[in-house]
Design brief:
Layout lengths: L1 E8 L8 H24 L5 E3 L1 H12 L4 H11 L5 H11 L10 E11 L6 H10 L2 E6 L4 H15 L17 E14 L10 E6 L5 E19 L4 E7 L5 E8 L5 H5 L2 H4 L6 E10 L1 E8 H7 L22 E14 L3 E14 L8 E4 L4 E7 L2 E8 L5
Parallel strand pairs: 1-13, 3-4, 10-14
Antiparallel strand pairs: 1-5, 2-16, 3-5, 5-13, 6-7, 7-8, 7-10, 8-9, 9-15, 11-12, 12-13, 15-16
GO cellular component, one term: extracellular space
Family: Belongs to the serpin family.
Organism: Asbolus verrucosus
């Protein structure tokens, strides 16, 4: 079974060696829990987010922020305590976002910036040397041409999975910059599901709401499995070809237990003592398309000044008072079936300025709502939940 993920984000990332790597792993897990909790507050459907990509663009934006603006972003994203630590972490982690021959994984950053105001040299150096971003001067006044330019880059980075991201009418002469992060991932399961074993079955969305969906089946003599009494849930980790890459399914023991589990999602995304266990697997095929307003999420996490026309300070990037983030969104897509998983995500941040065995074996039957996440080492690349597989 393959997993293909394309992600484009106006977000931010961090990573380092030794203690810094561990620190950022913890930071990433905390941010993943925070953003997950915020998204489900106003969403009663399936969701898919990319915490890691979201961290990368806002970290890139934070490198051009000053004073309270920068402090709020650092705190909201749980970034390391200093700019130097953050940059060291990012510089170390970005090269790891590459496939090892068994899977395809790469990340790309892009900054489109107005040709009316010069970018400060220090910010340019951080963007290109730390974030490995490509900077391109554009005239946002020519909004149709510029939107087409941005959309073509997005399509290329996401293997055409995300199209028409930018509408021309959101760009004008007051647009200063658009920051983007692309994350693409394509991998195969170590143990694939056989298509002829897929059968219809009942998925219990609620105690009374039952849907008939396609379930994939497999038997594995040594699945990575963990049962948590504390969370009253089962954890299943399915690995991909290649090192340290896996997808984790978290299934509440009670069919109506998702909400209780989500209240402790920071524990869900933590470290668990998986052990090899014989398992009979029943996993639904599912497809999710999701859009997340990152501006709303970050504001609820205490990042206020960056979005304020009167309080934002991004003079570390461009010597222009009144420059603020007016838009930050993420779009994601994932399709899980016997052949593989295909997914794409796009996130962007837009800046404007103010004018003026034989024994009985365990079963993992995901026939009711569950949480899932995809991780590289212990960094969470994607996370989401399935309420209705057929959507």
């Amino acid at each position: 079974m393959e997993l293909e993920i394309a992600a484009l984000f106006a977000l931010i990332l961090v990573w380092t060696h030794g203690a810094t790597v561990e620190q950022f792993t913890n930071s990433n897990n905390l941010f993943a829990a925070d953003i997950y909790k915020e998204v489900i507050k106003t969403n009663n459907e399936n969701i898919l987010i990319s915490p890691l990509s979201a961290e990368i663009v806002f970290a890139m934006a934070q490198s051009g922020a000053k004073g309270k603006t920068g402090e709020e972003i650092r705190t909201g994203l749980h970034l390391p305590n200093t700019d130097e630590e953050t940059r060291s972490a990012v510089k170390s982690v970005l090269p790891t976002l590459n496939g090892d021959g068994y899977f395809r994984l790469y990340s790309a950053n892009k900054i489109y910036v107005t040709d009316k105001f010069p970018v400060k040299e220090e910010f340019k150096q951080v963007a290109t040397r730390v974030y490995q971003a490509d900077l391109e001067n554009v005239d946002f006044g020519h909004n149709v041409e510029t939107a087409d330019n941005i959309n073509k880059w997005v399509e290329k980075q996401t293997q055409n999975k995300i199209q028409n991201l930018i509408e021309p009418d959101i760009l004008d002469n007051r647009t200063v910059a658009v920051l983007l992060n692309a994350l693409y991932f394509n991998a195969k399961w170590n143990n694939r599901f056989e298509k002829h074993l897929t059968k219809k079955g009942n998925f219990y969305k609620t105690a009374r709401d039952v849907a008939e969906v396609d379930f994939m089946h497999d038997y594995n003599e040594e699945c990575s499995y963990y049962e948590s009494e504390e969370l009253n849930a089962k954890f299943l980790e399915l690995s991909f070809l290649g090192d340290d890459l896996s997808m984790v399914f978290v299934l509440p023991n009670e069919k109506t237990g998702l909400a209780t589990l989500e209240n402790r999602v920071e524990k869900v995304f933590g470290q668990h003592n998986f052990a090899g266990t014989p398992l009979s697997l029943t996993i639904p095929k599912f497809k999710i398309e999701s859009t997340t307003d990152l501006k709303e999420v970050l504001e609820n996490l205490g990042v206020k000044k960056a979005f304020s026309q009167n309080e934002a300070d991004f003079t570390g990037a461009v010597d222009l008072k009144g420059m603020y983030i007016n838009e930050a969104k993420q779009k994601t897509f994932i399709d899980v079936d016997e052949q593989g998983v295909e997914a794409a995500a796009i996130s962007y941040v837009g800046f404007r300025y103010l004018s003026g065995a034989l024994e009985p074996i365990e079963e993992f039957v995901a026939d009711h709502p569950f949480i899932f996440y995809i991780k590289l080492k212990n960094f969470i690349l994607f996370a989401g939940r399935v309420l209705t597989p057929g959507q």
